[in-house]
């Protein structure tokens, strides 16, 4: 019998996060000794868990039920939280008493502004989250994803398990809920065989997992995956090393309802503006708390943040944001102009004339090789090739199959990009989504014109008078909605008929009347906008507007700046899992180095 079999010890663990805060009292901590006996304890008000009766020798522990607070150091010795989750760290327990200091990451921060969010989902940060941002350098970096991105969720750390019945091939086994991974895991070089769920505990040989399968299994999905990758790359650009995660800074992920279907871009724009109105409260909260704000957005996320800034700019002259980074923005190249008459959108949705007032600096990261936003300059195609793709039915449904982040980019790029076709009459353009939106809102015989009688008989055989009465009623209802919103006293009222103008804080009667007139004219032209959309800002940057005095002055002072990524960013979502050049030249030089000069990211110098 070993000499120490009757000897026991007390293990005392102090639990803090990297910001110096005690982990929440009442949190359960489970310790396992060399004999595989378990010793649960709860963290007390001093951040300490006490585990009595532990056998001396090797021991390991894990914290249960805490979301995202991954272990990064023990007694100031750094460790990789990805490895700690797969195999809890060991410690040497000596007789009598062993004391340890364990350090964890603070939890992730995600704000859910989606239409389908639970009613209890807050639009604002909690007091604890505000404190977290204050302690982490008194700054916040927000990230807004783009179009066609569902909410998704976090996944798990990888546990490795050796199975004799599969010729000793390693199997990826999801860890328990306590090990939910809220940080990016490196999949490079992994060769893992993944059993289908239907096999249960029986694991016949399988093919090695592809890199896409590993990403989906390890690094979350949809909006959460975007946040994991953005957060990790920004920390890496700031100087964090994989062998010491203690400087790791959490960003604020903002989710919104961008996944409306690959061809319903109009509804996605309405959702973006609705989310932008709700985002105003969060930006105001951070500003009033004295926390510096930087925002990074991708694709149609630009419409979310520009809506919020336009509203803030209409209200006051305060510069709420330090920096705004528009990455491949899916808005017009003149979206930031301050002259409303320069709006080429048939319904007045194209520019944000007061947005510039609420931000000190705007940096546009653009690439002409983005096949979603426009035709890549390196590819020239005959007209018949473009037409073959345009008239092909799969164009309409491609996004339902692939989504905007993968092959849709390349396929639509061959037809000159999807963005420039958003006003086309065929296959959908503005007619179908607007008609669908107003189906239960607008009076009859307006956005859905009256059907002529066959044969044409009666006093109004073509429905001209019916349409005129319908449009007059539409205008009166829209103007009444504007009056009611103003009378409500709500600083950000909700609009229905006037939702396409939601990038304005309050809509006047006159603006409401002009909007209905514009919509009526659009329907009268059989939904032909009469002009093509301006090129996307994320495609050509400020290239076509740089000589306009308003832009010229701001480009000269660097209030507006740009990073032309044409030589290294080759697809619309190429920054989510970036090449080395995208990381160095876009993340590091284009974003982090700029933040370092004008603001701050976390506690990095």
What is the secondary structure topology, with strand pairs?
Elements: E1 9-17, E2 28-32, E3 38-42, E4 48-54, E5 57-63, E6 71-74, E7 77-78, H1 81-86, E8 90-93, E9 96-104, E10 109-112, H2 127-135, E11 139-144, E12 155-156, E13 158-162, E14 170-174, E15 180-181, H3 211-218, H4 222-238, E16 252-255, H5 265-288, E17 292-298, H6 301-315, E18 321-327, E19 359-366, H7 383-390, H8 394-401, H9 407-413, H10 431-438, H11 464-487, H12 509-524, H13 537-540, H14 549-557, E20 560-564, H15 580-598
Parallel strand pairs: 1-9, 10-16, 11-16, 11-17, 17-18, 18-19, 19-20
Antiparallel strand pairs: 1-4, 2-3, 2-5, 5-8, 6-7, 6-9, 12-15, 13-14
Helix pairs in contact: 4-15, 5-6, 11-12
What does this 3D model show about the protein?
The chain is of the alpha/beta class. 30% of the residues lie in helices and 18% in strands. It is built from 15 helices and 20 strands. The protein has helices at 81-86, 127-135, 211-218, 222-238, 265-288, 301-315, 383-390, 394-401, 407-413, 431-438, 464-487, 509-524, 537-540, 549-557, 580-598; strands at residues 9-17, 28-32, 38-42, 48-54, 57-63, 71-74, 77-78, 90-93, 96-104, 109-112, 139-144, 155-156, 158-162, 170-174, 180-181, 252-255, 292-298, 321-327, 359-366, 560-564. A 7-stranded parallel beta sheet has the order 10-16-11-17-18-19-20, with helices on both faces. It has a 5-stranded mixed beta sheet with strand order 4-1-9-6-7. Helix 4 packs across helix 15 and helix 5 (265-288) packs across helix 6. 44% of the residues are buried.
């Amino acid at each position: 019998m070993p000499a120490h079999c009757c000897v026991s010890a007390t293990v005392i663990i102090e639990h803090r996060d990297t910001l110096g805060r005690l982990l929440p009292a009442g949190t359960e901590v489970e310790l396992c000794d060399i004999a595989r006996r378990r010793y649960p304890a709860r963290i007390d008000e001093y951040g300490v868990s006490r585990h009595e009766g532990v056998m001396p020798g090797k021991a390991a522990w894990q914290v249960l039920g805490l979301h995202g607070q991954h272990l990064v150091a023990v007694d100031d010795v750094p460790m990789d939280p990805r490895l700690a989750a797969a195999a809890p760290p060991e410690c040497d327990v000596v007789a009598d008493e062993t004391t340890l200091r364990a350090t964890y990451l603070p939890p992730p921060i995600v704000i859910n502004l989606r239409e389908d969010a639970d009613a209890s989902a807050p639009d604002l940060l909690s007091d604890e989250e505000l404190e977290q941002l204050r302690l982490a350098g008194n700054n916040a970096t927000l990230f807004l994803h783009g179009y066609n991105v569902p909410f998704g969720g976090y996944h798990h750390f990888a546990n490795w398990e050796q199975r004799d019945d599969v010729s000793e091939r390693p199997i990826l086994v999801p860890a328990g809920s306590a090990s939910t991974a809220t940080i990016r895991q490196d999949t490079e070089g992994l060769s893992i065989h993944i059993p289908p769920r239907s096999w249960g505990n029986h694991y016949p040989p399988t093919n090695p997992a592809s890199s896409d399968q590993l990403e989906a299994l390890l690094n979350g999905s949809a909006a959460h995956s975007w946040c994991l990758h953005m957060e990790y790359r920004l920390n890496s650009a700031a100087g964090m090393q994989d062998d010491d995660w203690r400087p790791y800074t959490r960003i604020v992920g903002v989710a919104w309802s961008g996944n409306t279907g690959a061809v319903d871009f109009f509804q996605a724009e309405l959702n973006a503006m609705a989310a932008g109105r709700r985002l105003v409260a969060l930006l105001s909260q951070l500003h009033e708390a004295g926390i510096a704000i930087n925002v990074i957005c991708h694709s149609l996320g630009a419409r979310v943040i520009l809506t919020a800034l336009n509203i803030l700019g209409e209200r006051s002259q305060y510069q709420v944001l330090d920096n705004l980074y528009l990455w491949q923005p899916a808005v017009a190249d003149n979206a930031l102009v301050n002259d409303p008459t320069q709006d080429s959108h048939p319904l007045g949705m194209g520019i944000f004339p007061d947005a510039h007032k609420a931000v000190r600096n705007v940096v546009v990261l653009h690439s002409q090789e983005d096949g979603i936003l426009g035709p890549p300059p390196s590819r020239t195609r005959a007209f018949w090739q473009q037409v073959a793709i345009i008239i092909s039915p799969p164009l309409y449904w491609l996004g339902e199959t692939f989504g905007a982040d993968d092959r849709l980019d390349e396929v639509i790029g061959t037809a000159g990009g999807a963005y420039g076709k958003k006003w086309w009459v065929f296959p959908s353009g503005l007619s179908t989504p607007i008609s669908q939106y107003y189906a239960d809102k607008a009076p009859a015989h307006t956005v859905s014109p009256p059907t002529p009688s066959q044969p044409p008989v009666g006093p109004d055989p073509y429905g001209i008078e019916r349409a005129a009465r319908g449009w007059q009623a539409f205008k009166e209802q829209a103007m009444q909605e504007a009056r009611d919103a103003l009378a409500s006293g709500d600083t950000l009222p909700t609009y229905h008929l006037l939702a396409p103008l939601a990038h304005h804080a309050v809509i006047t009667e006159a603006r409401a009347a002009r909007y209905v007139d514009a919509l009526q004219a659009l329907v009268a032209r059989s939904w032909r906008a009469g002009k093509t959309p301006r090129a996307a800002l994320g495609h050509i940057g400020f290239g076509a507007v740089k000589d306009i005095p308003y832009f010229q002055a701001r480009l000269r002072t660097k209030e507006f700046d740009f990073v032309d990524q044409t030589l290294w960013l080759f697809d619309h979502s190429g920054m989510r899992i970036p090449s080395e050049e995208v990381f160095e030249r876009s993340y590091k030089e284009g974003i982090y180095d700029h933040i370092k000069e004008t603001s701050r990211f976390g506690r990095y110098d």
